[in-house]
Design brief:
homohexamer; 8 helices; AhpD-like; 125 residues; mainly alpha
Chain lengths: 125, 125, 125, 125, 125, 125
């Protein structure tokens, strides 16, 4: 697995997106399903995040929006951190969530903003 | 209604996003519900699209992603056109949809790309 | 099947909700799956619409809202007609859709209002 | 902000819907995003809940249904309390959830009824 | 209620699907809404799980997939246990979740796999 | 692209699932986005459908269920045909949809059954 180019590209993208601590948490998946872990890394991060045309910050705009829209709030946490790591500011992230209010309604936007508030507190500069 | 600052801001944003023809089509809403039309213009476009921090192209990234994620394919059509109007390229739009494949699954991404293909044909430069 | 009390209750509820023409269209389901048809009538309409505490108009508020929220726009058509049949007015239906805009976002509310506009035209008094 | 008619209408609606304690909890949003707070109050509650034709109880039927249908169970809690505050009875709320079972399936209805059970216990008269 | 054939069929199906402990937990619903409980047992389990053509293992494939797709992760827990009880293996359950990744995207598949990991640990043979 | 093992596995799976005519239709994606086409074939069909433990018929149970649950009715059409091609019978497919009624509600189940009725007519033996 470790020799695979796609898998390596995925690991590199994950290093830019997530802190060491978060990646350790995510790696727990290897113990449950090594195959799903391989797909997450190779496809989810390798194939997608290493593509050109859109930078990581733009890709995180897409990821955050999709997670908010589908109400995937557990995964939203780590991607809010990733968004900050790749250069989106708190103001930009706040704006993404506000913009979502018109497209998914207030319940999901409100829940997302609450989580963002917690993440922002944890990452106070 | 027409004096309202929020409504005017909405009309201005809509002029940058949509062609005259598309806006005429959207205005059919006035005949069904003038109040919903007022909210669409004032809140949906006025309050959201005239905000700072994110430009219209970034806002269309969010809008497209949310529409694809929720499977709102009828509204996706006009926003694909809007995305091109505010400066997103066909390559960038294609990348947004590809990125969505990992977050919403292939069925919705495939349907979105099919629609994008139709819109791209119609707007061949 | 026809002796079943739940099924009979369902047929009675459907007579109050839907025109003869609409019910004929729905009965096409008998040819595809008689069992699903039985469940639609007995559970969907018999068990639910014949319950006390909420009248049919209130139940149609719930049904319309759920269909709009899940984007089930094909089924929305017959229930918009049902809503009018059980006493909800065009103004009330319009208000239900407007209220949804805040809870599901504008894309689905806009699509629902467009369909309502078509149904209202067809049922011009 | 406080001078704005829409914002004031929103605050008034919120006083009828939510207890002092719940409103205090909701106001935490001001610290994360004052702009989203302004929209929640002005649009979410001001523009929507102060409209005519449907009373607050009917509007809560719509809100509860939409929240259950989209699985927004965190926001469902405060709106179950709001529903009781504006005059919906426990029997009526129970019926709304039961009716949803046919339209969104049993998983979401079951989860909603479990939460309603907790809210009912807390508000034992 | 207890005499009803559909209700009895439902109780029998539930005995095959769920442990005594889980069924006790589910019966808490009787105290909140005896009517919803009756529908869960009679329709949800009686009418559906006692049907022919598909065995319980195949029905659990459908149930697990639908719960993952709609993000109903609370109900997923008891159905992961039910799936093991009716003969699906951990490998088969893992494969169902992996297959879902392509159809609902990675966020929901990842969350489902995490929950499956917890259930598998609890049921270590 | 054509040398890639994953891509070849995907093409082989697609030959078992879809008729020549359907595959031709799907290949239109190559003209819009060759990259998304490569992912559909390599990941969607290659990585997923060539895995062991679950046979194609079981995988189609999952696919159909997920499409119905998310309301992806356009993609449902080709997968209903695929399900028949890999050995699921009309009775089994009908049962899958009926089972979904309890988990996603009747609107989506009814729409799915209507489409199944059309597909069954087209493939009358």
């Amino acid at each position: 697995m470790e020799n695979n180019k796609r898998y390596q590209a995925g690991l590199e993208a994950m290093e830019q997106l997530f802190s060491h601590e978060v990646r350790n948490g995510m790696e727990g998946m290897k113990l449950i399903s090594p195959d799903l872990w391989e797909m997450i890394v190779s496809f989810g991060f390798g194939d997608l995040y290493s593509r050109k045309t859109l930078c990581h910050a733009q890709r995180e705009i897409i990821t955050l929006t999709s997670l908010i829209t589908q109400g995937a709030f557990d995964q939203l946490r780590v991607h809010l951190q990733a968004a900050l790591n790749v250069g989106l500011t708190k103001e930009e992230i706040t704006e993404i969530i506000i913009h979502c209010a018109g497209y998914v309604g207030f319940p999901k936007a409100v829940q997302a903003m609450g989580i963002a508030g917690e993440i922002f507190k944890e990452t106070k500069e």
